[in-house]
Amino acid sequence: MVVANISKVFPKDTEAPPGGVDDMTKLSYLHEPGVLHNLANRYELNEIYTYTGNILIAINPFQRLPHLAMINEGKSNSILVSGESGAGKTETTKMLMRYLAHLGGRSGVEGRTVEQQVLESNPVLEAFGNAKTVRNNNSSRFGKFVEIQFNKNGRISGAAIRTYLLERSRVCQISDPERNYHCFYLLCAAPPEEREKYKLGNPKSFHYLNQSNCYQLDGVNDAEEYLATRRAMDVVGISEEEQEAIFGVVAAILHLGNIEFAKGEEIDSSVIKDEKSRFHLNMTAELLKCDAKSLENALIKRVMVTPEEVITRTLDPVGAVVSRDALAKTIYSCLFDWLVDKINSSIGQDPNSKQLIGVLDIYGFESFKLNSFEQFCINFTNEKLQQHFNQHVFKMEQEEYTKEEINWSYIEFVDNQDVLDLIEKKPGGIIALLDEACMFPKSTHETFAQKLYQTFKNNKRFIKPKLSRTSFTISHYAGEVFGEVAAIEKKMRWVCGNARMNHIRSAYILGKMQVASIEEKFIEGRLDSLDVLCRPANALVQKLQLQSLMETLNSTEPHYIRCVKPNNVLKPAIFENANIIQQLRCGGVLEAIRISCAGYPTRRTFYEFLLRFGGLQKLWKESKTKVFLRAGQMAELDARRAEVLGNAARTIQRQIRTYIARKEFIAFRQAAIHLQSHCRGVLARKLFELLRREAAALKIQRNFRRYTARKSYLTLYLSAVTLQRGLRAMTARDEFRFRKQTKAAIIIQAQLRRHLAYSYYKRLHKATLASQCGWRARVARRELRKLKMAARETGALKEAKDKLEKRVEELTWRLQFEKRLRTDLEEEKAQEIAKLQDALHAMQIQVEEANARVFKEREAARKAIEEAPPVVKETPLLVQDTEKASLLSERQAAKEAREACKDAEARNSKLSKKLEDAEQKLGQIQESVQRLEEKLSNSESENQRTPENGNVANGEPKVASDMMVAIEKAREPESEEKPQKSLNEKQQENQDLLIKCISQNLGFSGGKPVTACIIYKCLLHWRSFEVERTSVFDRIIQTVASALEVSDNNDVLAYWLSNSSTLLLLLQHTLKASGAASLTPQRRRTASASLFGRMSQGLRASPQSAGLSFLNGRALSRLDDLRQVEAKYPALLFKQQLTAFLEKIYGMIRDNLKKEISPLLGLCIQAPRTSRASLVKGRSQANAVAQQVLIAHWQSIVKSLNNYLMIMKANYVPPFLVCKVFTQIFSFINVQLFNSLLLRRECCSFSNGEYVKAGLAELEQWCYEATEEFSGSAWDELKHIRQAVGFLVIHQKPKKTLNEVTKELCPVLSIQQLYRISTMYWDDKYGTHSVSSDVISSMRIMMTEDSNNAVSSSFLLDDDSSIPFTVDDISKSMQKVEIADIDPPPLIRENSGFGFLLPRSE
What we know:
Blueprint: H1 32-44, E1 49-52, E2 55-59, E3 77-82, H2 89-104, H3 114-120, H4 122-129, E4 130-131, E5 139-140, E6 143-150, E7 156-164, H5 182-188, H6 192-198, H7 222-235, H8 240-257, E8 261-263, E9 270-272, H9 275-288, H10 292-300, E10 301-305, E11 310-314, H11 317-347, E12 355-361, H12 373-403, H13 417-424, H14 430-439, H15 445-455, E13 462-463, E14 471-476, E15 479-484, H16 485-492, H17 498-505, H18 510-513, H19 515-523, H20 537-554, E16 557-564, H21 577-586, H22 589-598, E17 602-605, H23 606-613, E18 621-622, E19 626-629, H24 633-790, H25 794-867, H26 881-943, H27 957-977, H28 983-998, E20 1004-1005, E21 1008-1009, H29 1010-1021, H30 1032-1043, H31 1050-1070, E22 1071-1073, H32 1081-1101, H33 1107-1122, E23 1125-1127, H34 1129-1170, H35 1172-1176, H36 1180-1210, H37 1215-1239, H38 1246-1271, H39 1279-1289, H40 1298-1305, H41 1311-1320, H42 1333-1348, H43 1367-1373, H44 1386-1389
Parallel strand pairs: 2-16, 3-12, 3-16, 22-23
Antiparallel strand pairs: 1-2, 4-5, 6-7, 6-12, 8-9, 10-11, 13-14, 14-15, 17-19, 18-19, 20-21
């Protein structure tokens, strides 16, 4: 639904042709939307020319133009072609020249037509008069008026080119990314021998060229353009000797710009700075064919001629630079004028010509952010042309009304004479005041600005900005233009005295450049000496040239062509409404429409008007041949006509519908009667025939049913067989076709998704860059404003510059460091994989050795038992002593054997227990292998791998196939019992469960937010950071956004602030941008699959090594927790969105606290005013009660601070963020209290100072109780109000000196702030006085000096609401989060898909 203001809605001409009208005076409704709509319709049909009376509007189609025609009226005419850069003025001018040459039919010298001669001069004029600007790479920086002269027979007899308003200041001063005139760059790209002759080099080495970083144009070869310019000079008749002299002068200007000056020994004197400048001085003198010493004296000295004597005085280095630039501008201006005269003499002029047709190609209205003297002159010229245009349009309207005998005396003429008087009127115009200011050397732009403000304070066309002292705004016909006095006066104040003009005369091309004739134009009756030529030169030259141009235009019949640029991208078929309406407004077309609308804009012939409005009341004015309607009357007549026609149509429709309805009813009734009688007869005949046939059918059916049943059975049997065969074949073909289509669709979808993802990434990348540039510009402007307010001396600017350079170096170092870190991480990753594989192999060997040792120990134990000697029975025998000794030894041996057997049995039991433990570990290993297989399958499903581009393409088909066979064998029993869901469905269910879980408040575990840890572990386990496309990030962001819809619930905000900061910290330590790694995602998947393949192959090869798999799986899981992940685009986008949410939540908490304490701050600053009586009373009890009432507001603020601190502590918000919140809050309190103190005199009292001091003590106590961990530097943010309150309550103020006040008591406060507090202070308690009058006078003097030094005079503080931290600050300030032992919530704890979230102990 579109909602618009009714005053901005205009009627539409419903009878206008779809393709628009060629002359917009034929429109029924002549207004801005109608004009724009008509131009758009014609532009769609490639009709780029449209008339508005005798005004031709040409819209640039950015393609080959059609022919342009003009009526030969047999008298002198002028064609004014205007428009902004890129609108097609040059092409339109060329087409006009071709057409005029075709009408004239006269051949020029050597078979070349006048048109060819004029067009052949364009390369020369473009080389010396065109330059690159912001809007156009080949912008004409001068106005050109081409005169085509005709004899009495109407044949072309000659032509001439007149130039106006050359932009001289571009020779010495350019801005980035513009360029100087083309000829300088062409000469620097000349062949080596010519550059060596002129001692030229790279354009970057010349001062007049290196002020901008643009040296080369896209698609333009300066070397080729130089040769083309030389050829064009040959064509227009410039000899080789003259060409050498011309480019010698160009080279001399470049060398002249590199001459630098240093301060001389005497006061206000200067000398050549160094040998390099001396070299450029000698080269300049050599190229200009003059004496080097004389040239040096002319640059560093100034000669003033008076009636009594000739005074010579030296110039300081600044004056010498101004003198040097003035000489360069004068030389280049004379060179350009000589080139134009040379071209005119080559073309040939007819002094006896009686008629001419002139084509004016001049730049249009200009308005930039910073407008200098050139824009001032250009807009002044356009105001003159606009007045001429308005007078001509008004004259045409007057002639039309006179011809038709219509009274036109009431029509108001739209005149801009007041703007012209403001600029050129003598003696009080801007130009006259500017000339007068330039006459005085000690005049500054501040004094000139003040004179402008005093002179034009009551002029409605002159506007003075509120916050600037050296700028002004002029209200032109096309809009307001902002001008800076310093920029205008700087380009006006260029001096070229007698000595420098003498060097121009002594140059080689003296006779060709005709300097003397140029001087005479300014000396005759206007100037007394050449020394004052330069001061009013710019304004005087512009004014004289403009006067000559207007005299020429007034002597001819004008025709207007307004060239319009339809878009700023310079492409066809793009029509931008806002851009075109602004150009029509600047071109004066809308002014012409307003003049037409002031009278009778709608005109119709008698026949057309009577045919349309013959039956209405007379609301128009008749003339001889037409009917004239005022603005808006056409819409009123259309409304009345529609009302009359509507009433007549409704009457006719009512009668016709009655007749048709009755006729239809009678016809329907007769048809129904005939149809009913016919149907009843048919039904009776059918009933009789049915009864007759029933009897016969009973006889036939008995015998026929048997035959029919048999035949039906056989037919059905054969049909079923045939049908089954056909259906099976069709099913097989459909299945084959479906599989073929599915395969093709998968291929197409893969390519399309890749293309869509790449396109989306490009658009998002471009939008991100644009938003970052905008935000950085905004932050930079804010920082610049702060620096200006804080700076007390010029050293502050240098310090800011050093800080910025240091910041750039730091950012550059960080970028290189991150690149090195990314490379090192990739190498460490490869080394860790190799170490892991080696560890796996070593552990397999250890398990085999352990099994071998167990087997050997069992064998050793068995052999020890077998080899043990049998127990010998003791028999009582009588033996000798020797036999007893042997018996004792045998008993001892048997005892030792029994002990050895017991030891072997103990070792055997220990080994059997170890074997049971190994079998238990084997079961755990099998479970770990299943988990690893499921993890591998999840990774494959996320990356959507197909059998064609799987592991076979990466060189390991056998290992991968073995792994898949093992997985299928392990799952066969389970698949037979219960069919599984697809992996994508399982993953979707896990994501749904995760989103459902995090939408609840899961609380904290060990001071760590459970939600952030679970999200991070799930995303890392699912490998969501490494996939190209996934929806889990968007769903998480949507969940967080839905939770933040209630912006006033601080508990929820603190909860999500803690979770978002923790999750962002984990992502900052884990993610790294993809593209730096050596492996693509598919290769990484292959490497992972090959690792699991080797594990499964090792399990099949040696079952005893199965115990290593579990350890290896735990090692791999631990590696995934610690390694950095190569994040894809969705993961990086998720990180950016999470950063934005973190900043948003932080801002919401901070703003909520500001809203809560803002009313309390107002009460705090107002409290002494309402309870002052109770404080003044002498009764102690009343004072105590009043003081308690007053301090209650401060206690309320402290209570709010405590509530927010408790909320953020309860939600474990990082202390870094808590500290930032309270730092900004205390800064807000400081700004509010301090600004209120400066703006209200009743607050600058002694008692109010004591009250605020007591409140600040409450805040200081709160900072002490909150500890530095959470309050940080918040107390330091109150330095302004603390020092101001300390000044209010201090005693013996009149005895304090200015140094004590500014250095000891209030070092932070500015002079403006101290002056305001000192003048507004009053003691309502003891009646003391403020500081002494001497101190106040000193403050006033310092304030005046600061205002002269352009230091900001604002004494109020600004509140900073920006985000005071970055992601890197968070990652550096917060401690590393351990997520291993986070207990998952009950909702997902029992789900098998989230088994990886369980602690390792479980």
